[in-house]
Amino acid sequence: MSEWTFLAVRQEGAVGVIELARPDVLNALSRQMVAEIVAAVESFDRDEAVRVIVLTGRGRAFAAGADIQEMADDDPIRLEWLNQFADWDRLSLVKTPMIAAVNGLALGGGFELALSCDWIIASAAAEFGFPEVNLGVMPGAGGTQRLTKLIGPKRALEWLWTGARMSAKEAEQLGIVTRVVSPELLMEETMRLAGRLAEQPPLALRLIKEAVQKAVDYPLYEGMQFERKNFYLLFASEDQKEGMAAFLEKRKPRFQGK
Ligand code: HXC
């Protein structure tokens, strides 16, 4: 029996693929489902053979947000004890490159899940939005923060206040989406990009990811210091020796994550 109730998890070469598989409710993110996503992501993150993690959704949605049925009767004290966002926080600590292949609707928590990934590859049919405001609430898993850091406060407010949905194309123009592809080619193109990343030196990818994340949070000077330390650290890797030797010997490098 699969250890996952709401996911289909598989590995294709060096790429770990996690499919949200609750299509009857548009992959609404129940708390158990979020816990499963985090567990699956973390297990891939700790597997040296997995170089890239891809998240996608089954059916017509990536995820239509947190499970409204589950949260309708919540109160602040119960939410405090549940501490559900600790699970979401763990996604930010993942070091392996993560790609969201957004096949359809990515709303509310679904959009936040996609924003937790390093790249969003979107089907041309995908739509993004924060409809929480229409429910009398607001995003809680980083939506106001991540969207604002990406597109600036005034544009973020437009989407967050109106709850309007943005097309894949608009999201690409705003710098949220890395690439828009036709729906039938979404997984093929995502796996092609993931495969290319999987051939890159994994330690460099991880340390670059970490440094880019710091660029969002740190002032320039502190960010530069952080970058420098990671730069030095990579000179302890075999992949640095291999990469530079391969250049000098005019051959293709073979990176091993060591
Ligand atoms: C629970 C959901 C759901 C959700 C859809 N469903 N979204 N169930 N939570 N977020 C269920 C519907 O109840 C329905 O179940 C089935 O999925 C199909 O949805 P329909 O509404 O029939 O489909 P459609 O008419 O095409 O409309 C699609 C939709 C609409 C526009 C996406 O479902 C919708 O507005 N959903 C809610 C979107 C939303 O508000 N998301 C933000 C949630 S708050 P039945 O049983 O009737 O077939 C949030 C906060 C995050 O995300 C905080 C951090 C965790």
Automatic annotation (TrEMBL):
Its EC number is 4.2.1.17. The keyword Lyase applies. Pfam families: ECH_1 (PF00378). The keyword Transferase does not apply. It comes from the Bacteria. Keywords: Lyase. CDD domains: crotonase-like. GO terms for molecular function: enoyl-CoA hydratase activity. Gene3D superfamilies: 2-enoyl-CoA Hydratase, Chain A, domain 1, Lyase 2-enoyl-coa Hydratase, Chain A, domain 2. PANTHER family: ENOYL-COA HYDRATASE, MITOCHONDRIAL, ENOYL-COA HYDRATASE-RELATED. Belongs to the enoyl-CoA hydratase/isomerase family. This is Enoyl-CoA hydratase echA8. It comes from Geobacillus icigianus.
